[in-house]
């Protein structure tokens, strides 16, 4: 992968441990970093974001090679590996910090995000309307080191076993042709 051709996607699909674990395993993804975006507080902590008072969402900054995986395909994976029909929640994780959101980094990403959203909506994958927010660019605040590779380092914790592992297994099954060797 040439560093000069890499692109970024900034997406939030609930708990960033799930999203990071899914994208880390995909071919063409150089990195998937957990963090926070879309809120009012500079350099927020996990505890501050979890309070719901910062306006930030838990997000993942996906750095990818568009010659191996397009932004549209990043979004297709995103839309099929979390429930984009749940407003401000994913399962038992409730609050605006768990909202489904795409922070389009430029007008081209905004257009693609809207097209893929319409495509997924029309496909009938989800029986309820998609409520994913498509927002403009946002500052990405990297999460604390303890949140990086959380699932890989803590697969036996109750949350990882009950929530993260099934989502990762679903993604690996759905996208086995896109997994890193």
From TrEMBL:
It catalyses: L-methionyl-[protein] + [thioredoxin]-disulfide + H2O = L-methionyl-(S)-S-oxide-[protein] + [thioredoxin]-dithiol; [thioredoxin]-disulfide + L-methionine + H2O = L-methionine (S)-S-oxide + [thioredoxin]-dithiol. Pfam families: PMSR. Residues 8-160 form the Peptide methionine sulphoxide reductase MsrA domain. Its EC number is 1.8.4.11. It comes from the Bacteria. It is an enzyme of class 1 (oxidoreductase). Signal peptide: none annotated. NCBIfam families: msrA. This is Peptide methionine sulfoxide reductase MsrA.
């Amino acid at each position: 992968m040439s560093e000069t051709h890499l692109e970024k996607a900034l997406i939030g699909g609930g708990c960033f441990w799930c999203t990071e674990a899914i994208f880390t395993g995909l071919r063409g993804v150089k990195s998937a970093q957990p963090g926070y975006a879309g809120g009012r507080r500079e350099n927020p902590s996990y505890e501050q974001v979890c309070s719901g008072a910062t306006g930030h969402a838990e997000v993942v900054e996906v750095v990818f090679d568009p010659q191996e995986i397009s932004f549209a395909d990043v979004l297709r994976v995103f839309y099929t590996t979390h429930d984009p029909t749940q407003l401000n929640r994913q399962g038992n994780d409730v609050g605006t910090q768990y909202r489904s959101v795409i922070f389009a980094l430029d007008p081209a990403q905004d257009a693609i995000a809207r097209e893929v959203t319409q495509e997924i909506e029309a496909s009938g994958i989800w029986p309820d309307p998609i409520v994913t927010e498509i927002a403009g660019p946002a500052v990405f605040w990297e999460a604390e080191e303890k949140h990086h590779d959380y699932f890989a380092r803590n697969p036996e914790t109750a949350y990882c076993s009950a929530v993260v592992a099934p989502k990762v297994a679903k993604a690996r099954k759905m996208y086995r042709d896109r997994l890193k060797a």
